[in-house]
Structures are given as C-alpha cells and as structure tokens.
Amino acid sequence: MQKIDVKISNALNKIGQNAVSDMLPEVLAAKEHLLKGDAAGNDFLGWVDLPENIDGSMLASLKADVARLAAKSRLMVVIGIGGSYLGARMVIEALQSEFAAMDRSEKPYIVYAGHTLSEDYYAQLLKVLDHEDYTVTVISKSGTTTEPAVAFRIVKAHLVNKYGADEASKRIVAITDARRGALHEIAVQEGYPMYVIPDNVGGRFSVLTPVGLLPIAMAGYDIDKLIAGARDMRNICVNGNTLEDNPALMYAAVRNALYRSGVKVEMMVSCIPNLRYLAEWWKQLYGESEGKEHKGLLPHSISITTDLHSMGQYVQDGERLMMETMVRVEKPHATVPVPTDEQNLDGINYLVGKSLTEINDCAANGTIEAHVSGGVPVVEITVPTLDEYTVGQLIYFFEFACGVSGYTLGVNPFDQPGVEAYKKNMFRLLGKPGF
Ligand code: PA5
User: Fold this and answer.
1) Which atom of ligand 1 is nearest the CA belonging to 416?
2) In this structure, which of 78, 145, 190, 357 has its CB flanked by the most CB atoms within 10 Å?
C-alpha cells in the first residue's frame, strides 16, 4: 500500500527530536480516547469508523441518483457552507483540471453556492444558469443555516421558473438531518431524494458521508477508490502505536511539541494549485477543532511558488511565529518539457531537459532550506500522486490527526461554540423574530 510520508527532520530547528518523541504517551492516550469514545465530544465520533461502515445500499442509491442527474445535465449547483461544502470542493479541485470550467467536454462540472451572501455572486450565477441545463444538491446538516437557505431559495425559484415545479423537484437532491430541520421538512414536502448526515458526524468531518460523496461522484470521480484510500489509512491510524508507524500520531506530536515551544501559526504550504482547497478544508478542520479556550495553532496557508513572491518575505524575515506544513506530490499526471531556445535570451536553457516537477521540487527544497535557516520549522507530508485513493488517505490522515491533536491540546475537538456568536448579532441586525 502506498503510504503518506510525514517527515519532521526539517522541523527540529526549534525543538529537539526528544521533544517530539516525548509526546508519544500523550498522543497514544489521545488516540485511545478517540477509539474508546471516553472523552469530551464522544457523541461526534461517527467519522472514526466511517470508511468501514459506509452503508452499501445508501451508496448504490446515491450512485443511481448521480447517474440519473448526470443524464439530465452536466452542471450541478452544490449549495452548502463550511463542513457542508469544503470537503467536496477540496476533493474535486484536487482531482479536476484547473481549467475544468473552460473544458466541459471531459466531466460534469460543479459550481458552488450557499457559501457566500454576495449579491453579485448570485446575480452572476443566475446569469449562467439562464442558459445552462443544471441540477441542484442542497446540503445542510442543521437545515437552518442562513447562507445555504437563502441560496437555495434563490436557485430553487430559478429552477422552478425554468423547468416547472414537477421537473424542478426531479432535479434537486437534499442532504440533511434524518429527522429535523427546515431542509428536511422542505425535502419531505417536495419529494426530493434525501440523504442523511449521521447525527454523530460533525460538518467538518463529513466528507465521507453523502455530503462529500454525492458531489464528488457527480463530478465524475470514483468514490469507491476514495473510500478505499480512507479505509487503508484508517487501518494505519488505528493500529499504529509508534510515531514511525503512524503518520497521524507523528503529525499530532510534532505540531503540539512546536506549539508548546511557542509557535502560534501553522501554514499549510501547497506545492501545486490543485491543493488550494485542501488547505481551505484543513483550515476549517483544525481551526474549528482546536481554536478554543484561547488555545490552538492558527491555521493559515500559502501556495508555492506563487506566494513566495508575496508572503515569502514575511515567512523568511517577519515575526517568528510560525511553522510550515508542506504538502508535496511526488508524481504529476503529465509532463511538459521546457523548450530549448537557441538564442537563450532569457537565460533558462540550463533548465532544458529537466521536468517542471524537478524544477518545482528544487524550488520547494530551496524554500525549506531558506525557511529553516530563517527559524521556521517545516514538516513535510508527501503523497506519491494525486488520485481518489491518495486523497482518501489524506482525508482520513488529517481527520484522525486532528482528533488526536485536539485531545493532546486539551480541548474538545468536536464542538464549535464560537461559530454561534456572529449569527446572533446578524439575526438581531436583520430583525429575525426572537433576536
Ligand atoms: O463544521 C461545522 O459544524 C460548520 O462549519 C457547519 O458545517 C456549517 O456551519 C454548515 O452547517 P449546516 O450543515 O448545518 O448548514
């Protein structure tokens, strides 16, 4: 089995190897809490066994719905926010062409809504939907979140206007709670196919439920391979009892050791643009899980080499606050040679014969050397290539490490009391009854 590699040798410039090794008893204890379900947040541990427990009949009906909807249209609007959208977007953007919007011949295409309240965004979306055949998936666990509710009302009105109420109902799928919430009620009343987000899986851990699986399958990716990758990584995370055997324990140990040494910010560094949404998903996963009781590393992200030309200055020379977690992909899917040029006016003939991946790797290695010498510890996470299987591995690896890391930090990694504060103010300002 291909394995995710977590390398910490470049993260030991601020702390010694012992500071990481000494974390083993604590991360093992945190792992036991996850497996035994005997600590805070234990009613939200459904994700731990999810790759083993995915209901086959749910999966078959989800695939049948995807096939039915794909036959109607090759464009789907996926409505959701936070944990109800970032996982699907992360997987799809990791796997699809960066230019998928312009090359629609290859696979069905997903557009997103419900993650913003920008008026112009919806005006622009509706303009596109005027001349596109489309279907809709609306996702909300609570079924009451304002942003997706507003987006669904707008898009549904457009859909009904375009196709009539009967056909509109056949173009909508709802993913929500099994029993409660406004979206559940609407779906029952309108007869939409409905998929359930299990009670014991929180939004940010829900990518391997229909929340992620339906949009990912709709975008043309193999969800069985994604689940297989997560399942294999689960075996490693659940059974590995040393830092060397268990990449999730290693990652949780090194980031907690660095936090204790005074590091405040963890920057995910993606080496290719396809990983931009891995960073967005990871920021929610770690920020919402650990940012409590005035504790936790602040998750931030940059992309290289792009951001070396902007944030690079701060990372090298600014306030010494941060560590980096660089996500590397060994093999690209294609090769693009650097053409030779007889005149060599740009002076880059010395690169001819090297692949762009070799050049990008040299940039990444040069960056690590520079940042380490500037006092920034760098953890490297390497996957052999980007496909459904390795992305499934990454999902489970980051989720398991997050649970272990949160318990090691001493917080409940599975609640999010802080996200309610803005909602109360927004409802009061909007004049919502009761606020
Ligand atoms: O992780 C979380 O709990 C949040 O980010 C939610 O996923 C987000 O607020 C959306 O909630 P809901 O699915 O209930 O609409």
Assistant:
1) 3
2) 78
pLDDT of 208 > 70? The answer is yes
CB 219 within 8 A of CB 96: yes
Which residue of 44, 81, 139, 175 sits with most ligand 1 atoms within 8 Å of its CB, as the best mutation to test the pocket? 81
Residue type, 83: G
Separation between Cα atoms, residue 386 and residue 93, nearest integer Å: 11
**Torsion (CA) 383, 388, 389, 395 in degrees, nearest 10:** 70
Nearest CA to ligand 1 atom 5: 82
Amino acid 425: pLDDT: 87
- Type and span of the H or E element at 379: strand 378-383
Please calculate the CA angle 104-105-107 and round it to the nearest 5 degrees. 75
pTM, rounded to two decimals: 0.97
Count of beta carbons in the 10 Å neighbourhood of residue 107 = 18
Distance 299 CA to ligand 1 centre (A): 18
Q: Over 70: is that where the pLDDT of 1 sits?
A: no
User: Do 233 and 397 meet the contact criterion of CB atoms below 8 Å apart?
Assistant: yes
CB 253 within 8 Å of CB 243: yes
How much is the mean pLDDT over the chain?
96
Taking CA atoms only, the protein residue closest to ligand 1 atom 8 is 82
Mean pLDDT, residues 118-133 taken together: 98
d(CA 366, CA 368): 5
Rg of the chain, C-alpha, whole Å: 23
Paired with 383 in beta bridges are 329
Residue with tokens 């899986």: 201
pLDDT value of position 282:
98
Give me the mean pLDDT over the 326-333 stretch: 96
Q: Among this protein's residues, is 333 annotated catalytic?
A: no
Binned at pLDDT 50, 70 and 90, residue 330 comes out as very high
Of the listed ranges 39-43, 303-307, 426-430, the least confidently predicted one is 426-430
